[in-house]
Amino acid sequence: MIWRRLRPGELNHEAIWLVVSVATLFGVWLWLHLAYPVPQCVFHRITGLPCPTCGVTRCLRHAFHGEWKVAAAFNPLALMGLAFGAGYNLYAAAVLVFRMPRLRFDHLSPLTRTGIRFAAIAVILGNWAWLLWMQV
Amino acid sequence: MNWYYALGDQRQGPIPDTELDALIAAGTITEDTLVWREGMSDWTALRIARPPGQGAPPPGPGQEAPAGWIRCTATGRYFPPEEIVYLDGKPYSAAAKAGVLQGVMQGGSLPDEGDLNRGGPPWEKRQQLGIPKAAWETVKAVLFNPFETFDNMKRTGGLDNPLLYMIITASLGTICGMIWNWLGQMMFQSFLPTNTHQSTFAFQSAIGGGMILVALILAPIGSAIAAFCGSGILHLSLMICGGAKQPFETTFRAYCYTVGSIYTLQIIPFQVIPIVGPLIGGSVVWVWALVTKCISFARTHEIGTGRAVLAVLLPSILCCGGLIFLAITFAGAIAAAKGIHH
After folding, report:
1. What is the pLDDT of residues A22-42, one digit of tens each?
2. pTM above 0.95, yes or no
3. Which residues of chain A approach chain B closer than 8 Å at the C-beta?
């Protein structure tokens, strides 16, 4: 993990993801605000059990109203994702405005990569276990 | 292309490039040996007909690379040892100098095997081909020859070209799809009893027409956002499956060319065929998209097909049990087919 300047021709990830995430968030907010239909979960309909992404819409709806505890109960991973997205956007806005060096992970060892992969899988499965336990 | 060469007073050949390189490596022919091939006006010394520094192409099946020559990591061609330098422990030829420098400057890494030989797809040559022809050639190449297309797709080179392609094709496909859908609904309405449909017909026509006008404005914005979100999710999926061997830029490029091309299938008016049209159209597009995506990621990231399939399906598996839905769809189709036979 290093802080460095962008190389010539390198993708400006901070600018790209800041614009994309803000536009997506606005789109989601508008969709929910206009009360457009939300897709129904086929897995839940058939099995009666929540799928790993069930509760995301309800989580976002409550998070937009500042009801963090209720939002976390519906899907903790979605709330974590929202918090991470907000944090990343603040960082992105700061480095773009103040022309600061960028955070990059140029050289991750294969062991670290594998560790991150398995951690991600464990988090997804843990979140699903929570949803099953809570009967979201 | 085959070569002829002069050995004493005798004309020898024709021989392919690989055999010519073998003869050079063996010392049978030298830089001063007179050579000729189709297209040349006269016999010329080898050093002029084929200047040094170009190397030999990779040998075909059953052929061998010239003895002692070394494979350049970036170009994939073979060179004599004196034309090779080692960077980060890997051999590179002088012919790869510009590409190596560009790779280091842009991504901070040395180009991988065969990177400099990738030049496609045709959309990236639209300055020469013109936009309509380049778009059409790219759609054809991706849909009907995905293996070769993604083997030759440039893995770096910016996001603007694929993004523009995606915006144009996806917007066109979306708007055509909406028009066909609207026409299909109007046709369906016309089959209903007169007193049922007359009151709503004009209203629905106006709403449908209005929605198409709105789509004209929103489709390009939506396509651009979808390109980033879709490729971002797929790159995460590839990372989880251990298949992200190339940076996000490669995933984005492959995603835009694949999904953009698939969107053009919506130009076909499936929706106006009563009842079965949308079902058949939707299934064809869905399966075609799935297969093309798997091929594109397997070829551009140079990973196994199984891993690419898992990465492409992972978002569906995680969200709404997509595989169960797929299994039920196929089970239903099989059951329906059996029902027809019995």
Report:
1. 998 888 888 888 888 887 888
2. no
3. 7-11, 13, 16-17, 20, 23-24, 27, 39, 41-44, 46-47, 51-53, 106, 113-114, 116-117, 120-121, 124
